[in-house]
Specification:
The protein contains 8 helices and 7 strands. The chain has helices spanning about 10-25, 35-50, 65-75, 100-130, 140-145, 150-170, 195-200, 210-220; strands at about 1-5, 25-30, 55, 80-85, 135-140, 175-185, 235. The protein binds NADP nicotinamide-adenine-dinucleotide phosphate.
Length: about 240
């Protein structure tokens, strides 16, 4: 049975990705950090699409916890394969560099960049063995352009874009692709504090995007329709570069 693992799959963009990949026929492993109720809702939404869903709570920033969770899963499910990994878990802790606290820097780097490393490292050997895999990293416009007030977040996302390009070249011969999507402003709980009315004027399409508009591109990158694309970062930003 073929599974897709989505980190931070319980809410927002991650949840929309879980539903999109379920529609494409994958069973889904939903990782989340602490909000069990939201994770249960995401699980029900996947099951409503006729696919199986499993919840695996762990903090992607915690290397040992990430490794153990995935090792246990592979040991308990020897007949199942993780064909798709979506590294989506991420947080924002915005501040100007001059005011930034050490933990604001560390937490954002540890979850976005450390999480990419910890989870990919746990899943990649199985993909290499199977000679099949699709890895999609959710990065950001901030990682391409750099946004003031987000040196931590921009650094983390830019680093994952670099890692996407490097890893893509390492594993292409193993039939594994590694790509990224870079959303602009997307309506989720992460952007609740950002006033769409105030910011939409700078976006050529004059609106924020939806989680589903990101998920459909992730679905494309997880499908055979993207079979000759690797190392690429696709922007989903309504024209805001
Ligand atoms: P969100 O609504 O805040 O959801 C974040 C998800 O990540 C939740 O499922 C959360 O689980 C999980 N999560 C957070 N920290 C985690 C950790 N340490 N370990 C495991 N899971 C963790 O965020 P979103 O807007 O959907 O963002 C998803 C991704 O898109 C992030 O990487 C973000 O940087 C990126 N992005 C978002 C936007 C945007 O405008 N929204 C733009 C560009 C890029 P819990 O519920 O358990 O906390």
């Amino acid at each position: 049975m073929n599974y897709a693992l989505v980190t931070g799959g319980s809410r927002g963009i991650g949840r929309a990705i879980c539903i999109q990949l379920a529609r494409q026929g994958f069973n889904i492993i939903i990782n989340y950090s602490s909000n069990k109720q939201a994770a249960e809702e995401a699980k029900s939404a996947v099951e409503a699409e006729g696919q199986q869903a499993e919840l695996i709570p762990f903090n992607v920033a915690d290397r040992e916890a990430s490794r153990k969770a995935m090792e246990d899963w592979f040991a308990q499910n020897p007949d199942k394969k993780v064909e798709v990994l979506v590294n989506n878990a991420g947080i924002r802790k915005d501040n100007l560099m001059i005011w930034m606290k050490d933990e604001e820097w560390d937490d954002v780097l540890d979850i976005s960049l450390g999480g990419f490393y910890n989870v990919t490292k746990s899943v990649l050997p199985e993909m290499v063995k199977a000679k099949k895999g699709k890895i999609v990293n959710v990065v950001s416009l901030s990682g391409l352009k750099g946004l003031p007030g987000q040196t931590n977040y921009s650094a983390a996302k830019a680093a994952v874009i670099g890692a996407t390009k490097a890893l893509a070249q390492e594993v292409a011969r193993r039939n594994i692709s590694v790509n990224a999507v870079a959303p602009g402003f997307i309506k989720t709980e992460m952007t609740e504090d950002i006033d769409e009315k105030e910011f939409k004027g700078i976006i050529p399409m004059r609106r924020f995007g939806s989680a589903e508009e990101v998920a459909s591109v992730v679905g494309f990158l997880a499908s055979d329709a993207s079979s000759y694309i690797t190392g690429e970062t696709i922007s989903i930003n309504g024209g805001l570069y």
